[in-house]
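Limitations

Structures in this collection are predictions, not experimental determinations, and the ligand pose is part of the prediction. Treat each record accordingly. The example that follows, with S-adenosylmethionine as the small molecule, is included so readers can see exactly what is and is not provided: the inputs are given verbatim, and the output is the predicted complex.
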Amino acid sequence: MTQHSATPAPYRTGLLSNEAPHERDRLRSIQRSVDAFTIKVIQDLPLEASFNCLELGAGAGSIAYWLAARCPEGRVVAVDLDTRHLDMRRAENLEVQEADITSEDYAPGSFDLIHARYLFCHLPQRDEVIARATRWLAPGGWLIVEEPYHLPADTSPSPLVQRVLAAYQRAYRDNGADMTWARSLPSLLAHNALSEVSFAGNLGCMGGGTKDRWLPLITQAAPAMLADGVITQEDLTQFTTLLEDPAFIDIPQVTIAAWGRRPEATASTH
Ligand SMILES: C[S@@+](CC[C@H](N)C(=O)[O-])C[C@H]1O[C@@H](n2cnc3c(N)ncnc32)[C@H](O)[C@@H]1O
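Predicted complex:
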């Protein structure tokens, strides 16, 4: 089997498939939790209204919709394996495309801005797809990638959360995800000849009552976690109660955003 033919099983039929009953809740929870950070990162770049943008693994679409509004003279292509949570009527300059980004290709230099969030950690060919994405950038174009970096489960202040997070991380790992790859992003972008490489982090919040963003994520992974036998339904019930306690607050992961720019074409000296 070549690396190229591998389809990320968790998003086709597995743990994270759109057939999973809680996928919409999970995608919305992700958006509530990180959109403000993502938008700040993108806003701080020298965006132009005419930018052509590509949103990889667009999910429920919040960033694609935001880019379409921010770049009204350009266009936004929102691509995902499964586009059922995307609404192409949200903007006239929005194109929704159902495709597998591990095999899809675009003409070199097609986009001024390419963004992806929580996508590459799931792709077995993550480094190779980053390299291909840099070639889709127009000279001067930006690649912005945001991925999770999970902190060690056994450093949680709660023994129960230590076990729940260990089971969660294992379920993701068993489904091909790499939850620490994000750390290599700045280096990877620089190795792919991007310039002005920079990065920022956003701390995840588990617990804290209404501040919690993790219950939908754990709920979706629960069947896989229970099947492992490391945690029980009783553990999950206690975990749900713990998250409602405003005095329990934990930081299970950091979202690392890294970005870089394809250098402008230099004028020929001949
Ligand atoms: C964790 S969700 C993140 C969604 C969105 N980027 C966000 O952060 O709100 C990952 C998304 O990537 C999509 N995806 C996973 N593998 C993909 C692939 N090979 N090609 C295109 N999309 C993919 C999934 O269908 C899902 O919508």
